[in-house]
Amino acid sequence: MFLKIIRRSFYNMKDSYLIYILACSFAIGMFSILLSLVDNPRLKSGISSWSASLNNVTLGFSVLFIFCVFVYMGFVGGFFIKQQTHEFKTFEKFGMSRWTIIVIGFIQTVVVQLISWLIGIIIALIFQKFFGMLLLYLMGVKTGFLFRFTGNTFSMLWQICLYSTIVFSIMNSFRVQKLLRKNKDKSKRLPKWYIRLLGGILGILLFFSGIVVTVILFGDIKNNNQTAAIVELSFLFVAYLAGTYLMYYGFLPSFLTILQHTKGIAYTGINIFSFKYFKERLMRNVSILWFITELSSLALILLSVCYFGYKSVYTNYTYAHPFELTANQNTVKPIKKYLKENNAKITRSYKTNVKTTVVQRGSNNEILPGTFISYSDYQKLPKSNVARNPQITKNEFLVLDYGYVPSFASDKSNTAVVKVKNARIIKTNKIGSAFPYGSTMYQGLMIVAPDKYYQKLKPEVKNTFYGWFFKSGDSLTHKQYEKLNKQEYTSGVQIKKAADLADTKLTTDTNRRNVSGTTVYMDSNFSRQKNAKSQVDQISGFGIFIVAMFSVSLLIALGSVLTLRLLLRDDSEWKQLKTLNKIGVSKSEIKEIVKKETIYSFVIPIIFAVMQSYIVMALIARYPRTTMLRPFILINLGYIALYGIIGFVTYLISWRSVNQKLT
Amino acid sequence: MQIVVKNIAKDYGKRFNAVHAIKDIGLEVKHGEFLGIMGPSGAGKSTLLNIISTNERPDHGQVLIDGIDMTELHDKEQSKYRRNKMGFIYQSFELLDSLNVKENIILPMALNHASKKKIEQSFRHMTKLLNIEGLEKRNVDDLSLGQKQIVAAARALINSPEILFADEPTGSLDSKSATILLNYMQLINDKEKTTILMATHDAFTASYCSRVVFVKDGVIFAEVVNPGDRNKFFEQIINMQRTIGGGSYFNVSQNN
Questions:
Q1: Keyword annotations for this protein (chain B) (predicted)?
Q2: What ipTM was assigned to the predicted interfaces of this complex?
C-alpha cells in the first residue's frame, strides 16, 4: 500500500521529479569529477603547480560546490513535500497514523536522493575523461588525461551520499510532520494590503537609492576614497537585498492589486482572472524569486570580476613580456652565446639605450627611478609592443606608469607631472602603461623624451636593453634557463633620498644593500615569455574551467528552481485553469496565461539582477584604461540568453503539463 | 437553439478497464425546450451533458446545434461558442477560488469584453433576482454550499445564454433557494426561450422541465413529457424512477 502511494506520487509529479533529479545529478556529477581530479596522477605529473597548489584549490572549490548543492537540495527538496500537503492531510483524515505518513515522506526523499547520487556518479564516471581533457586543453598542457577514480574518492562519495540522504530525508520527515500539525487560517496568514503597500514603497526607495549610491560609488572608488566606498558598499548590500525582497513582497502585489481594482483594465477579457492569479502565485513565491534574483546578481558580479581578473593577469603578462626574450647589458652576453649554440632562428632583434635618473611622481611626491628612452629609439621599437600607448610627436613626452595614472594636482586628473633631477619638469597628458621591454626590466617610471631632452639629460646609470623574436621559440635548454634564472634579480638601482631632488642620489646596486636612508629597486636582468605564458595559460585555463563549471551549475540550479515553482501548482490552481476552460476560455488564452506567468517569473528577476550587478562597474572604476562596459554587457547578454533558454523550456514543460490536465 | 445529438458514444479507460459511459445515444432538443436528464449515479448523465456542451468530445457521433456540427469545431471555436452561447451550473460549482463573489459572477461578461456599465447593471440585476446581495465582496471559500451554488447559477445566467446546462443545480440548496433558482430557470425558459438541459436525481427539480429523458447504463432508457400539470408530471417521474429501480424495460420513442 505504502509503495503504491509512493509510486503514485512519483508518477503524478514525474516532470518535476525528473527536473529535480537531473539538476541534482548534474551537480553531483560535477562535484564527483572535481573531487576525482584532486588526486589524479596525470595532472600531478603534467602540471607542476598541481601538487603545489591547484589540487588544494580544486578540493576547496569542490567543498564549496557541494555546500551549494546541499543548500539547493535542502531548499528545493521541500517543494515536493509541500506539494503533497492535501494528500497527506487526507491520509491522516482517513485514519493513517502520522508516523506512517512521515515514513512515506522519508522513503520518497531517500529514493529521490539515492537515484540522484547514482546518476550523478555515473555521469562523473562517463564524463571524467572529457572534463579532464577539457581542463588540460584549457590549461594548455599537452599531455593525455588518465581516467582514474580511486577507491578513496568512491568511499568519500559514498559517505557523503549516505549522510546527506539521511539528513535530507529526516529534514523532509520534519516537514511532513510540521505540515500535518499546521492548521493556519489563510486569512490570518496573509498580511494586510497596506502593510504590503508600505513595504513595497520602502522597497522601491531602497532599491533606487541603491542605484543612486552605485553612481556615487563610481566617484569614490575613482578618487580612492576608501572610507566612503566601504560605507556605500555596506549600504548597497542592505539596500539591494532588502529592497528587492520588499519589491517582491510589497510593490509587485500592490501594483497587481491596483490593476485588479482598475475596472477599466480588470473587467476586460481574461484580465479579471489573470491579475489575481499572478498575484497569488507571486505572493506564494516571493522568497524564491528573491533568492533567484540575488544569486543571479551574484553570478553576474562574479563572472564580471573573474573576467576582469583574467584580463588583468593577461594584461600584466603582455606588459611584462612583450618580447619573446629580453636582456640587458648584464645578461646579453650569455644569452647571445646560448642562442648561437642552439642555432635559434631569430626573426627580429632590437636594441635600445636608456638613461636612468631620479624623478618625483606628481600625485604623491614619491621619489623613484625614471628610465628615459629617446623618441627616435622609441619609434624603432615593434609597433605591437607600444600599440596600447598614446601616439606622440617628436616634441612630446610620454610617461609610462604601470596601470595607474597619477596627477600632480587633483584638478588635472589627465595630466602627468614628473619632476626630473637636474632637468626641466615634465607635464604631459600622454600617459601609457605598455613598457616596450616589459615592466619587470626596470622599476619606477619610464619616460619617452624628445631627442634633444634625452641628449641633454645627465643620467646616473646607463643601460641597454635587448629584445628578440624567434621563428620557433627561443630554443633555450632547461639547463641554460636555470643558469640565467640565477642572474635574474642580481642588479638594480639604489636611491638615497635628500630634502631636495637635486641632492638625491641614484647608484647602481648589485648586492641589495640595506643601507639606512636608501631604497633599493631590483630589476629583472632578463625576461622569457615562454615561462610566463605557460603559467598564465595554466592559471587562466584553470580559472575558466572552474568558473564555467560553477556558472553552468548555478544557472541550471536557478532555472530548475523557477521551473519547479511554475510546474508545481496546487489542486486549487489546477482546478481554476480547468474551470476557465469549461466556461469558455480557450486553451490558447490559458496558454497565454502560462506564457505570461513564465515571462514575468523569469524576466523580472533578471532585470533586477542586471541592475544590481552594475555595481561591478563601480568596483573597477579605478581603472579608466580598462573598458569593461562591453565585456560586462556581453557577460550579461550571455547569461540572459542561457537564462532565456531555460525560461523557454520551462514554458514548454509548464504548458505541456497544463494542457495534459485540461485534456 | 435546436440541439440534435446523433449516435454519440464515449468510453473511459483503456482496453480491459474501458467503461462505456455513453453507448450510441440519439436525442433531439427543440429550441426553448427545458429538458431534464435523469438516471442513477454513473448512468452517463454528466457525460452526456459534457458532450453536448462541448466540454468533452465523443468517440463517435455528432452534436448539431442549430445545424453546426460541434464535434467538428476546433477547440478554440468550441470555447468561443461556449463563452458566447452557453451557461453552466455544475454539480461541484466550479467557482474560482482566487476571485471573490462579484468577480466570479461577472466573469463570463468580462470574458466577452462587455462594457463596464453593462457588467455592473447585469450584476445588480442578477444578485437582486437571486437574493444574494451583500455577498459580492466575500471570498468563495467563506460561502456555504448553498450560497456557492446560487453564485454559480448567477454566473451561468448573467450572460443571458441561449443554452443553459445545469448539472444537479439544486443538489446543495435548501428548498427555498432551490425554488427561487428553478423558478428563475423556468422564467428565462419561458420568456427568453433559453434552451435548458438539466441533469438531476431529484424528481421535484425535474418536474420543472417540459420533458425528462431517463438514462441508464449509457443509453436513453425512457422519456416522460410534461402533460402541463406539474403534480401529474411529478408522479410520472416518480413512477419512472421506480421502474428504472425495478429494472423494467420501457420503450423509447421512435425518434430516438
A1: ATP-binding, Nucleotide-binding, Transport
A2: 0.80
